[in-house]
Amino acid sequence: MMGQNAFGVFLVVIYALLEGVAQVFLKKSVLGSGHWYLWISLGVVILLIEKMIYSEALLFLDVGAAYTIGSLNLIAVTFMSRCLLREKVTTKRWIGVCLIFIGVGLVAART
Amino acid sequence: MFFKAYSVIRNNCMRTRKKFPIRLAAGLILAILMDTAVQLVWKSAVVSLPNNGSPWLNVQALLHSPLALSVLFLMACQFFNWLTVLSNADLSYAQPVTSLSYVSVFCLSVLYFKEATDLIQIVGILFVFAGVWFISQTDHVTPSKEREA
Prior knowledge:
The complex is a heterodimer.
Chain A: H1 4-29, H2 36-60, H3 63-70, H4 72-84, H5 91-109
Helix pairs in contact in A: 1-2, 1-3, 1-4, 3-5, 4-5
Chain B: H1 2-15, H2 22-47, H3 55-63, H4 66-86, H5 91-97, H6 100-112, H7 119-136, H8 144-148
Helix pairs in contact in B: 1-2, 2-4, 2-6
């Protein structure tokens, strides 16, 4: 049986992945490629679901842990931007994202 | 701190080929400020809820909490601001830059809630700043030709 902490971690990982998907949909809505209302609606629905999941996760995890794991969304968003939106993600941008991820981990580790 | 962040981002981007729109800089700063407020108020709202063990009951309790309603209002403002930001920048550029809200939440916790801090956390803050600096060195938008390639 999954422990409370493990369940909290699982919820935050799902939150991070859904954040990536929702942000891609929102970006698609402003790209002017048509069907903007469809993209925006899907984005909002997923955002609402992920917020509920994150709220649930906060009941099982400290905010520091939730913050750290939740910052995986940066990596998810960058990866999905590259693959689904064909954005130019340079090595410099990847280095920046990784530094921020490590930094957030260090800040949140003691909270 | 935010004006400093603004000038660093703007100056770095002005050195690159593409002009950095003031609207984008303002949108990013607003996004950081609102994200900070949402994080602080949201946690207070969730902690103040009774643990019913049911997500539906938790949602109902949230809808009757003034703190949670404030979070919803802030989130709505954040959402429209975010769409403006996204229409002016790459998602993979804008999203990491708003991570500066991690720094502002940390600073506010130390300054106003007198939370303890240590060297590791300060190193973490420097990592976040370094990361945002690296990202600010890249073009804020991918040309449509490269996107289609």
